[in-house]
Amino acid sequence: MSSLFDTVQAGDLLLANRIVMAPLTRNRAPDAIPTPLMAEYYAQRATAGLLITEATAISHQGQGYADVPGLYGTEQLDGWKHVTQAVHDEGGKIVVQLWHVGRVSHCELQPDGGQPVAPSAITAKTKTVLIRDGVPTFVATSEPRALDAGELPEIVHTYRAAALNAVDTAGFDGVEIHGANGYLLDQFLKNGSNQRTDDYGGPIRNRARLMLEATRAIVDAIGGGRTGIRLSPVTPANDAFDSDPQPLFEYVVKQLAKLNLAYVHLIVGATGGPREMPERPFDYAALKAAYRAAGGKGAWMVNNGYDKATAEQALKDGADLVAFGKPFIANPDLVRRLRLDAPLNEPDKATFYGGGAEGYTDYPVLSNE
Ligand code: 8OZ
After folding, report:
1. What distance in Å separates the CA atoms of residue 49 and residue 272, rounded to the nearest whole number?
2. Best probe residue, ligand 1, of 21, 25, 185 (max atoms within 8 Å of C-beta)
3. How far apart are CA 338 and CA 301, in angstroms?
4. Catalytic (active site) residue 183
5. Which end of the chain has the smaller Cβ count within 10 Å, N or C?
6. Which amino acid residue places its CA nearest to atom 8 of ligand 1?
7. CATH placement of domain 8-351
8. What residue ranges line ligand 1, CB within 6 angstroms?
9. Of all atoms in ligand 1, which is nearest to the CA of residue 353?
10. Domain segments of the chain: what residues?
11. In Å, how far from its chain's centre is CA 250?
12. Which helix (H) or strand (E) holds 336?
């Protein structure tokens, strides 16, 4: 029986333990450029088996929130170089989460103030964050326009280019495709947001097409062994909904199984909320079985509100990796604290999004006594 503290191979990545830092949006990258403070923050957490960065826009069109980082401009890539260098200096491994928000955006954040893009022109019942008078403020997302099928190859190309930039220029160990939480790829997957009548809408294989094309393009560019993907079958985050998620996600993982990915990252239940959702039942064991039966060898990562006991149980139940979010915000030395069964610092919600060092790089580590 493996423990949280055992090494594990995830594709090309040999991880020092099974404790992963989940992607966490922190809105501390003005002009989408990663800062030295971000390098310090990630380096402080480098004892995680794997760090997944906060969601990072692959293009200006993919931006949906104030002060989130990007991966498409020279200064952004330079900023990330310092982050990866700082993490590697501490012996850590770090992948970048590739993000296109689709309809979860606002005209003010889009190129030329245009409409956000989506599979269909259906406004998400959710909010995004803009800076108003210097203060992060929640605002309703703007009405999106439906993407023309002719625009989709460019989006696929943008994913590929971002992945290449991530590993070749910015020095990341790999990438995670953000396929979750009601953003572009998840919007295409689910019939609550996708009402297209072309090859990208309707039956499951059509709704999964964009995600799979983007994933194949990335794998073709950097190799499956450096590519992971995050999925959230039933989360209601950002107005995500599908009327029949089990066959949809089983189809997706069976296709992913052919791509030799490093890992598949599942958000169990409602993002940041309960893992059990009686109103949206889902069989995760069947999903994993479908992936393995189709030859999928990637590490199976679970996430959402785990603590040490439930994480150990998840490993017993067949997961290979467990991602921790909020505990990593407040405990840079989370791995050590879990190992020692030491108490955890409580995260301060008021400093989750935006701001500076406070609530970011100033959480204390255990003393050595
Ligand atoms: C919290 C705030 C803004 C964005 C996600 C990228 O839910 C996010 C996100 C989380 O995946």
Report:
1. 21
2. 25
3. 18
4. yes
5. C
6. 25
7. 3.20.20.70
8. 25, 55, 65, 181, 237, 271
9. 2
10. 8-351
11. 20
12. helix 334-340
**Tokens 């005209």 found at:** 107
Q: How far apart are the first and last CA of the chain?
A: 31
CA distance 104 to 282: 25
Q: Is 339 helix (H, G, I), strand (E, B) or coil?
A: helix
Cα gap 357→359, rounded to integer Å: 6
User: Residue 291, by phi and psi: left (phi above 0), alpha (psi -120 to 50) or beta?
Assistant: alpha
CB-CB neighbours of 266 under 10 Å: 25
**Please, which residues have CB within 8 angstroms of residue 248's CB and are 6 or more apart in sequence?**
189, 190, 204, 207, 208, 233, 242
Residue with token string 């297209």: 196
Backbone angles phi, psi at 267, to 5 degrees: -85, 115
Q: Is residue 64 classed as helix, strand or coil in its secondary structure?
A: coil
- pTM of the model as a whole: 0.98
* pLDDT, one tens digit for every residue, the chain (369 residues): 689 999 999 999 999 999 999 999 999 999 999 999 999 999 999 999 999 999 999 999 999 999 999 999 999 999 999 999 999 999 999 999 999 999 999 999 999 999 999 999 999 999 999 989 888 899 999 999 999 999 999 999 999 999 999 999 999 999 999 999 999 999 999 999 999 999 999 999 999 999 999 999 999 999 999 999 999 999 999 999 999 999 999 999 999 999 999 999 999 999 999 999 999 999 999 999 999 999 999 999 999 999 999 999 999 999 999 999 999 999 999 999 999 999 999 999 999 999 999 999 999 999 875
- Structure token digits, residue 311: 């994480």
What is the rounded CA–CA span in Å between residue 17 and residue 321?
8
